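worker-3 :: picked Glycine/betaine ABC transporter substrate-binding protein
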Amino acid sequence: MAGGRRRRARGRRPGAGAGPAVGADGAGRRRLAYQAFPSGDLIVRDQGWLEEALPEWDIEWTRFDSGATINTAFVAESVDLAAIGSSPVARGLSAPLNIPYQVAWVLDVAGENEALVAREGAGIESMADLEGRTVGVPFASTAHYSLLAALDQAGVEAAAVEIVDLEPQDIVAAWTRGDLDASYVWLPTLDELRATGQVLATSEEIAAAGKPTLDLGVASTELVEEHPEVIAAWRDVQARALNLIHDDPDAAAEAVGRQLGIDADVAAAQLEQGVFLRPDDQSNPQWLGTPDRIGEVAANLHDAAEFLAAQNQIEGAPDLTVFQDAVHAEGLSDVDGS
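worker-3 :: tokens ->
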């Protein structure tokens, strides 16, 4: 590894063998789910900061392509920490999943890094033109939520659109074959579609109209309760990554580029399309808040669940208190990433 960093992280296929979080040698094991979108989480993985902060733990990173598969992994008890969108978290905290996990961090706020794109030559100039067309999106993701919200805001019935469930890598293949008229997806896949398509709506625009989405860091309730030192260390390195994005964007882009297999200048452009908080913003009332005053993220998740229920995507939305109880704000104000 570059710089002689100690890297004990291992890759696994999603959902491979749950089992106890104990390594073959009896040492503790922490299983992290990450996604291939530009974020501080990729910087943490690239730099090996969590491995350095928790040398007594065997850190295992597994790539997932959507929040839906991460939720499945949590149900199977095969992950402990994850980078996941707010919409799948709203689903995960609702019936029938009722996943025992807690929101411990805001990775980013969706901006222009997620968007709905119509394929060139498809004859789609507006949201109304999507009626009767085929749109690809990863189901139960923030993009799926934003697609439904965009259709709703435009007065287009979702039932009038053929919405197909595809993971990002499958969207590119279907797009190339001409099987899709449009797609709602995130970076870096989004960049590939924009090269031969027209943006109809971005998550930033949909958020401004009342339906924001975020990428969150969640941890199993068991981990939060039994190993607060792991949560503290994980938050600290996530804060360090946010600081790097703000204070040394070139270094941040190089790290993200390595993880995504793209040039640093492309990674830099992609990072600029997201909204990244400063570490001390996390405990603000607008975001996660404090133990005495849980922040607006809980209300955001509740609103998302109510919308998903209205769209018949989940059975029903739990009470707001369910989402407030699922925000882990303890110790958050002490994190600065220094």
